[in-house]
Amino acid sequence: MKITPTTLSINQLLGSGNEQFIIPAYQRRYSWGEKQWSDLFNDIKLLSQQDSHLLGTILCLTSNYAVGINQLELVDGQQRTTTLTLLLKALSDKFTKLKLDELHKEINSLLYCKGLDRVLKRKVILGDLDNLDYEKFMKNEDINTIKNQKIIEGYNFFMQKLNELDLTELLEYHYKLVNNTYTIRLDVGNAKDAYKLFETINNRGLSLSPTDIIKNFLLGHSSLIDDNTLEKVKGSWTELIINLDGIKTDDFFRQYLSSQLKRKITGSTIIDEFKKYYFESVIEAENLNEFSQYEHPRSLETDEEELEETHVDDEIVSATANSEHHKISIIDFAKRLRDASKIYGQIRNQLFTNVNINNHLNNLTKIKSFPSYIFLIDLFQRNIEDTKKLEILKLIETFMLRRHICEYRTGELDAIFANLVSVENENIIENIKEKLLKHFPSDNEFRDKFYRYNFRGNENRAKYVLETFEYDLIKDQGEYVLTSGGELHLEHIIPQKITTKKSKEEFGNWEIYLGTNAKEQHMKYVNRIGNFTLIAKKLNIIASNNPYKNKVKEYQKSNIHLTKMLTNLDEFKIQQVKDRSTEFATKAVQLWSF
């Protein structure tokens, strides 16, 4: 392995007129936040002019230098390098405002380069997901259409900090940034060496996310095979990153592995479990030095506390231990990951062609059914009718709502849904129902808990419940959809606050209206289901001594039956909350039932 390490100031790193840093398409979006921006800015600001600051290492995959612009693939250092350009652009713009044109030009020479055609080009080219946004940012064009707001937020953060400096401090900061701030650039000529070095300098990934380690592991191995394999695996990984845009990729890998291995996978074991799965699945894996560590599948090590918590691990362990992997090529393995990521993205963002499926996936999001995605990754790759998928989604809705309302332990859910993957397509609905019933609250327990359940902090769950009540009221056959998103509001009939001066000015004196023990009773019942309804817009009411009557005038304008029914009540106090909660609890048992 030939490595060329060079310690460079920022002036030296970005000052070469014939180099351009390319962030590969397979890299994730720019994602640094305020902590990293603040650390970088302050580290430089606090330097004395005799001191220096080491920004860290960047790893470049290089080729033979030629006339014109030479492109260096940035294997490691994407976030640091991008952040540097945001800071430099903020400085450049600041100097422009101060009419310090010479300094503005100096900084621009670090942000741009020219080839033989003498056309100005950006010194840093971001990956596919961010490059269009970055180009708009650098040109100050269509800023309001930029999707990755981290780019804008980072620039604004640095501009705010620079605005706090007087001219002397600003000039000093600029000097320390470009002359006293250093990075160690490691140039490597071969892809296989670059990926191996990436793993080494990051201490085997302890400081990186599981996704970063998995990416490097896959690309590193494929680079050892041949260039064609590397390019195909890179292509699949690029599509995977695009499919998961806006989603935590570590979540995908944890839940994908749980689905494949049919057991619960924790965040701390993602890397080890992925490698084990990889070595058991990929033909070419036998050529890796690490293969001997995974040649004989390890016995499943399950924490005793986890076993006690899930009650289903024996069944899952058996299913996993007896499974046999049909080995495939690394190219096909990468394609499997890509295909699963596409399904996962469609599940999380509700992007299927079937609108009804998307509606039920949205319901699962409102209920907070994240663990169910372990099984859904598998379900949506099966060749079964959409009608069956819809029935299964409804079963999961019922299952998840009952468990949440009854406050069952969430730690069991990963194992429960991983176990569902073993269900065959034949009689799939009946078999899923049978498995879920083992962990299903009874009608009596659900009714009692539903009446008492505090929906505070779970407003979307309450909205889902009320929407379902509304559909039942109008005998909907799947043809009607309530206004969704932020346009449909969850309305507290008795307001959330009744004792403050502001609440009394806005809603009227509910404290007097509710009568004896109003504060105590309000605290106990304000977030129960009986105190909620749905409304399409903010109420326009006038505070009065009978605040409910003023609300009723607005409720009469609503097209939502659940809300219009409130107009039949002469008053609405704690007793009415109890009565509606009792009524809704009885209805809930009917609607969310197997």
TrEMBL record:
What single Pfam family name could you report for this chain, choosing any that match?
A: GmrSD_C
InterPro entries reported for this sequence: GmrSD_C (IPR011089), GmrSD_N (IPR004919)
Q: Where do the GmrSD restriction endonucleases N-terminal domain residues begin and end?
A: 10-219
Q: Which residues form the GmrSD restriction endonucleases C-terminal domain?
A: 441-586
What's the name of the protein? DUF262 domain-containing protein
Identify the taxonomic lineage of the organism of origin. Answer: Bacteria, Bacillati, Bacillota, Bacilli, Bacillales
